[in-house]
């Protein structure tokens, strides 16, 4: 295809460029047509099946046309709580097609997508790469008509919001909603201070300082950062790499979006510090596709750092060389798992690797790699400036420092809060204005759903760990609907590699729906628990090992919810509905089901 | 390097450094059920049937390397029940009609079901709508039976390293895709190999389905795993 010669021209014949090429083709044609699949396969020395495999793995790539304008409407539970149904209906009416389809005139494609990191300003959607927040049916009508008339999405952004969101490089209606600035992330920062101080130390001393600070990974897993850097540094075969995991996909988290908007200098400094510590000369920021709108800003910040000699050759007068490039995802929650992220950064389907070996041994391009979360790298930079003791003076016994929380749901002030680790859930709810909270989801769907009984517990790695996602539900919410939405999310986002996660979650969700609709028995409750435990035990990666948590933690913390649902069912075998079972046969035989006769027997 | 010592269900075993648990167990005449695993291909740990437990942690024995002093739990009731559940999941996920399947008797999924004496799965059948693909001249791709073991993806490649079979989509939509043009270039011998390497009846070579009659096939003669349990031939 004539146009795609341009896209392939000058590209290295390197399969790791696959996703970048697919992204360009998708951007130009709205899909990846058959001719392009052939062209890409021939150029990179892959089979067409391999190219199709990469295209179909990601939300934002497609083999079929997705419309001249493509709407991706967020399907997170918070979006639903804030009126998604009416907004979706307005989209369908205006576009003249259902979600999952393209309008008959080919102008608008409507697609649902998993949490896009805007939970504090829902309902939100990504339209042709531009984020639209706080949508209403009225706004939707206006948007669709304008898009159909050929207006680019960017000119339809009616208001630029706070901070860097209004810079010429972003021009976004996304709001930061920074509600509480703490001393670590949002404390004063003299640009370059962390890198200059680090390169004056030995790499070993840098690692030692991070170890002494007891810095634990902020993505949620809580692995000690200093130890990870140490493992990576000890690997003998260079080159080493630093990869920043900017793929926050846990529903309800959006704090990394705010960090990348307002504190990207600090992130990149943290990456340079990590690079110096582990002995890397290259860093990669893996940015989730949903945050592609921040890329021009991030590239410009990188350019600035190069001009200031905080990146590039002989940084800050030392013998340390380090530079950073940005790699984009394609829409896949699983790519937040570090080995899946590395696969994706190498241009492949984002499927987790078998571990061990761990990324510190065999990581990016098969080399020793430290993969760290955005917030972790910021904290590391600050620790180098202010010292481990300063960091340890904040937080709880086993969770030093502060944490950025993404607060959403039924509260007065949703947004981002930097607070010390170790506060109780009740204290947190008071701060955000959620005194009547009934259930709180700590750590997103993969975390725990807790009830008022547990509001005295502490948010910290030693008690209730979280990567930052906190969703609050008032007493008027239907918890089953929330749990069901979470299970739907895991089913959608499972890569499907291993049996328990691919099949088990579907079976769990069916069982849950049987119970929610009043057709469940006590045996079904026992099955839910047993099957959930089995999926956790047998799954290959963190996704399957946590996907039953919405069900298991709600079973544990809201037993009355389930009890009430199964006590509704009076029959011995409530799954069996005679009328329903005989309906089709009766219709085929052209007669009415003779239910009265059965009842009289 | 000296041999590593470890135990499986208390039985003392030895392993070469770098050997996976599945390989080492086989060498010690201990059967750990496997399905996606195929000797000589890089392991993927996709089916999870070979899951064992060591130090309270669950691990796929086809991907996990033996470490010195490991105490592995294998044939314990709760683990066996979970393996059985995995096999049941594979049955309800697809459409498996053993009596009419060309692979019956040579099928490893069927053989495992017999070994685990599965009469009825505990899970409801999903009855997915799947297709049969006949895009390559010699190959019939029976998606109803595919269990996503990735053996074909791993093993069938062109001389310049292009994969004839690849994974497509994800989650429940995940399926095996075939590059029709590359598949058309496979020799009879290569197609036969692809069919044999498939543990179920998903990859079939056209026109030879019932060459060996049912009743005289591999697992008709003895249950899966019995060769391993007899121990290595001396």
Q: Estimate the strand proportion of chain B.
A: 15-25%
CATH class (first level) name of the largest domain in chain A: Alpha Beta
Order of helices and strands of chain B: EEHEEEHHEEHEEHHEHH
Distance between the termini of chain A: 72 Å
C-alpha Rg of chain A (nearest Å): 25 Å
Which strand order does the major sheet of chain B show?
A: 2-1-5-3-4
Mean pLDDT of chain A: 95
pLDDT < 50 runs, ≥5 residues of chain B: none
Proportion of residues in helical segments of chain B:
25-40%
Order of strands across the biggest sheet of chain A?
A: 6-12-11-15-13-14
Largest interface: A-B, 38 and 46 residues
Which bin fits the share of residues in helices of chain A? 40-55%
Radius of gyration of chain B: 18 Å
Alpha-beta content class of chain A:
alpha/beta
Task: Describe what this molecule looks like in 3D.
Chain A is an alpha/beta fold and 601 residues long. Chain A folds into five domains: 2-55, no CATH class; 69-158, Glutaredoxin; 180-392, Rossmann fold; 402-473, Ubiquitin-like (UB roll) (Roll); 479-567, NADH-ubiquinone oxidoreductase 51kDa subunit, iron-sulphur binding domain (de novo design (two linked rop proteins), Up-down Bundle), CATH 1.20.1440.230. Chain A contains 25 helices and 15 strands. A six-stranded mixed beta sheet of chain A has the order 6-12-11-15-13-14. In chain A, strand 11 (402-409) and strand 12 (415-420) form a beta hairpin. Chain A is globular and about 90 Å long. Chain B has 234 residues and is α+β, with helices and mostly antiparallel strands. Chain B has two domains: 4-75, Ubiquitin-like (UB roll) (Roll); 85-208, no CATH class. Chain B is 26% helix and 16% strand. Chain B contains eight helices and ten strands. In chain B, the strands form three sheets. A five-stranded mixed beta sheet of chain B has the order 2-1-5-3-4, with helices on one face. A three-stranded antiparallel beta sheet of chain B has the order 6-7-10. Chain B has a two-stranded antiparallel sheet with strand order 8-9. In chain B, strand 8 (165-168) and strand 9 form a beta hairpin. The mean pLDDT of chain B is 95. The chains are: A alpha/beta (601), B alpha+beta (234). The A-B interface holds A 41, 45-50, 52-53, 56-57, 332, 349, 354, 356, 491-500, 502-504, 506-507, 510, 527, 531, 534, 537-540 and B 43-49, 51, 58, 60, 63, 65, 82, 85-86, 89-90, 92-93, 122-124, 126, 147-148, 158, 160-174, 177-179, 181-182.
């Amino acid at each position: 295809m004539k146009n795609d010669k341009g896209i392939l021209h000058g590209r290295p014949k390197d399969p790791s460029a696959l996703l970048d090429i697919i992204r360009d083709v998708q951007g130009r044609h709205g899909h990846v047509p058959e001719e392009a699949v052939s062209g890409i396969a021939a150029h990179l020395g892959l089979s067409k099946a391999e190219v199709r495999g990469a295209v179909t793995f990601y939300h934002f790539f497609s083999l079929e046309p997705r419309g001249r304008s493509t709407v991706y409407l967020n399907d997170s539970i918070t979006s639903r709580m804030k009126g998604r149904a009416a907004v979706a209906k307005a989209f369908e009416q205006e576009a003249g097609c259902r979600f999952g389809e393209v309008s008959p005139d080919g102008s608008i494609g409507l697609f649902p997508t998993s949490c896009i990191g805007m939970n504090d300003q829902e309902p939100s959607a990504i339209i042709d790469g531009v984020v639209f927040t706080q949508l209403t049916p009225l706004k939707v009508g206006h948007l669709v008509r304008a898009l159909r008339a050929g207006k680019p999405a960017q000119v339809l952004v009616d208001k630029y919001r706070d901070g860097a969101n209004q810079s010429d490089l972003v021009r976004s209606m996304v709001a930061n909603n920074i509600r509480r600035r703490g001393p670590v992330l949002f404390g004063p920062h003299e640009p370059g201070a962390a890198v200059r101080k680090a390169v004056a130390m030995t790499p070993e001393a840098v690692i030692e300082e991070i170890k002494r600070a007891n810095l634990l990974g902020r993505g949620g897993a809580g692995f000690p950062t200093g130890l990870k850097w140490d493992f990576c540094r000890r690997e003998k075969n260079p080159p080493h790499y630093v990869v920043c995991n900017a793929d926050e996909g846990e529903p309800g988290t959006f704090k990394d979006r705010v960090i990348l908007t307002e504190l990207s200098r600090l992130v990149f400094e943290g990456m340079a510090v990590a690079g110096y510590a582990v002995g890397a000369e290259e860093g990669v920021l893996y940015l989730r596709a949903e945050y592609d709108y921040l890329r021009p800003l991030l590239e410009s910040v990188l350019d600035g750092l190069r001009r200031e000699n905080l990146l590039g050759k002989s940084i800050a007068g030392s013998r340390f060389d380090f530079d950073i490039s940005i790699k984009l995802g394609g829409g896949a929650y699983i790519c937040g798992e570090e080995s899946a992220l590395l696969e994706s950064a190498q241009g492949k389907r984002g499927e987790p690797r078998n571990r061990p070996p761990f990324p510190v041994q065999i990581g990016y391009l098969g080399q020793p790699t430290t993969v760290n979360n955005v917030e972790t790298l910021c904290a590391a930079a600050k620790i180098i400036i202010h010292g481990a003791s300063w960091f340890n003076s904040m937080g709880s016994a086993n969770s030093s420092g502060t944490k950025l929380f993404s607060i959403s749901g039924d509260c007065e002030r949703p947004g981002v809060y930097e607070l010390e680790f170790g506060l109780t859930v009740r204290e947190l709810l008071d701060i955000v204005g959620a005194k009547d909270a009934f259930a709180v989801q700590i750590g997103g769907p993969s975390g725990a759903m807790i009830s008022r009984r547990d509001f005295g517990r502490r948010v910290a790695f030693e008690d209730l760990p979280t990567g930052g996602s906190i969703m609050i539900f008032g007493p008027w919410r239907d918890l089953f609907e929330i749990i069901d939405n979470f299970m739907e999310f895991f089913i959608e986002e499972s890569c499907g590699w291993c049996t328990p996660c691919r099949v088990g979650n579907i079976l769990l969700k069916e069982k849950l729906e049987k119970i929610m609709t009043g057709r469940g028995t006590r045996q079904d409750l026992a099955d839910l628990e047993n099957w959930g435990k089995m999926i956790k035990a047998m799954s290959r990666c963190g996704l399957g090992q946590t996907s039953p948590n919405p069900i298991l933690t709600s079973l544990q913390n809201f037993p009355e919810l389930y009890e009430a649902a199964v006590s509704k069912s009076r029959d011995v075998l409530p799954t069996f509905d005679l009328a329903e079972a005989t309906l089709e046969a009766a219709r085929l035989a052209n007669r009415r089901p003779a239910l009265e006769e059965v009842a009289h027997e | 390097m000296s041999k590593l010592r470890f135990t499986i269900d208390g039985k003392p075993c030895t392993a070469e450094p770098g050997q996976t648990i599945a390989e080492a167990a086989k060498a010690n005449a201990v059967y750990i059920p496997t399905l996606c695993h195929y000797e000589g291909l890089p392991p993927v740990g996709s089916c999870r049937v070979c899951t064992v437990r060591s130090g309270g942690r669950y691990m796929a024995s086809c991907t996990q390397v033996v470490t010195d002093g490991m105490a592995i739990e294998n044939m314990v009731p709760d683990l066996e029940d979970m393996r059985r559940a995995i096999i049941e999941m594979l049955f309800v996920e697809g459409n498996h009609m053993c009596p009419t399947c060309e692979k019956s008797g040579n099928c490893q999924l069927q053989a495992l079901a017999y070994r685990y004496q599965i009469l009825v799965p505990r899970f409801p059948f999903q009855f997915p709508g799947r297709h049969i693909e006949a895009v390559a001249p010699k190959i019939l791709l029976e998606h109803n039976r595919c269990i996503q073991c990735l053996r074909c993806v791993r093993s069938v490649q062109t001389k310049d390293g292009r994969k004839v079979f690849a994974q497509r989509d994800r989650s429940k939509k995940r399926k095996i895709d075939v590059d029709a043009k590359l598949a058309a270039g496979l020799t009879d011998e290569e197609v036969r190999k692809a069919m044999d390497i498939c543990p179920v009846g998903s990859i079939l070579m056209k026109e030879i389905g019932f060459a060996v009659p049912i009743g005289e096939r591999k697992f008709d003669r003895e249950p899966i795993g019995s060769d391993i349990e007899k121990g290595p031939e001396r």
